[in-house]
Amino acid sequence: MGEEREDPQKLKRIAAAAYDYELDPRWADYWSNVLIPPHLASRSDVVDHFKRKFYQRYIDPDLVVEAMPSIKPSQSTKPSASSSAADGVQPRNAGTTTRSSGTSAAAGSNTSSVHWDRQTLQFSVNSWVFIVAVLAIFPLVPRSLSYRAYRLSFVGTACSSLYSLYALYGKPRAWNLQAVQAYFQSIIATKDFIYLIYCLTFVTSQLFLKFALIPILCRMLEHIAKFLRRNFNRSTMYRKYLEDPCVWVESNTTTLNILASHVEIGVGFLLIVSLLSWQRNIIQTFMYWQLLKLMYHAPVTAGYHQSVWAKIGRTANPLVQRYAPFLDTPVSAIQRWWFR
Q1: Taking the chain, what is the end-to-end CA distance rounded to the nearest angstrom?
Q2: Closest CA to 288 of 323, 263, 325
């Protein structure tokens, strides 16, 4: 009977291990939002554990995922002590062991409380940014107030992304060129870094593009829904008013990311059009298209952006070949720069 109960879970674990996570764009986004120290993120057992959690959330809710065992340096010496205690032999330093275990338990609780404080702080900032961004987009808000809310939305998102980068990756090991370069290589493909640069681009710009706030709203909505589902799923108010919206957001993260990708690429073309106005900024336009190029190649956004660009190519290429064949040479040069 015990073997029959375990067989379904064994098959589910095999299916979870065989699943191709790299082809699922939700996995890259899920992994980029996991808050673990960098030295643990490189361990294969830790990655496998979070892959099973991802599989449980998005593919098979019936999969049972066991808690990740704690990693301790003295793990090899503890089983002998526990076995001797089970045989009735009490070690001489039992009091010391009890005190040290109590100290480690207290340290663990302090660590979890710090982790909780970080999440709560980021949730507060994200909620504030979401409210301010909605205020900036709402059409009946006076222009002066809308403009201030527009600026504050980008500033708040930049601060949230910067704090998340610091919490996950810390700071460079040394303030020299080699250490700083290695640090940037480790964070440049993350979603937090991409949105940090995205927000800084518009904070320093004179353009007032409410359209550019849609990716911010999608990102904040996703973070807020995840936090509420993880921490308030037993609350009566949450179950009554917020559970259905949060479930919808988490079930449609791919749709939200595709919408954000459409808007980000559309903003790039709007910046090109703005070069014809008195608010033109050639440097900002060039830097933003460098950011779009990064979004096209970065694993966390590549799937969505490549899909949008493929649709644009299927629409634009026949028109160029039919009505403007003289543009083939510049378009080829731009493509070589883009894929480089």
Answers
A1: 59
A2: 263
The half-sphere exposure of 127 on its side-chain side, counting CA atoms within 13 A, is 11
Domain with 259, as residue range(s), is 117-339
Cα dist. 203→149, 208, 276 in Å? 12, 10, 21
Same domain, 241 and 330: yes
Of 255, 158, 270, 274, the residue nearest 212 (C-alpha): 270
The candidate with the shortest Cα–Cα distance to 295, out of 37, 36, 28, 47, is 28
Residues of the chain above pLDDT 70, percent: 83
Phi, psi of 222 (to 5 degrees): -65, -45
* Long-range contacts from 17-22, C-beta under 8 angstroms, 24+ separation: 17/48, 17/51, 19/51, 19/55, 19/59, 21/51, 21/54
Q: What is the pLDDT of residues 266-290, one digit of tens each?
A: 999 999 998 888 878 888 899 999 9
pTM for the model: 0.65
pLDDT digit string, tens, across residues 183-201: 888 899 899 999 999 999 9
* 132 and 209 together in one domain: yes
* CA angle centred on 35, ends 30 and 37, rounded to 5°: 125
Domain assignment of residue 245, yes or no: yes
Task: Give one DSSP letter per residue of 230-243, joined into a string.
Answer: HHSTT-HHIIIIIH
> The dihedral of CA 13, 9, 31, 178: what is its sign?
negative
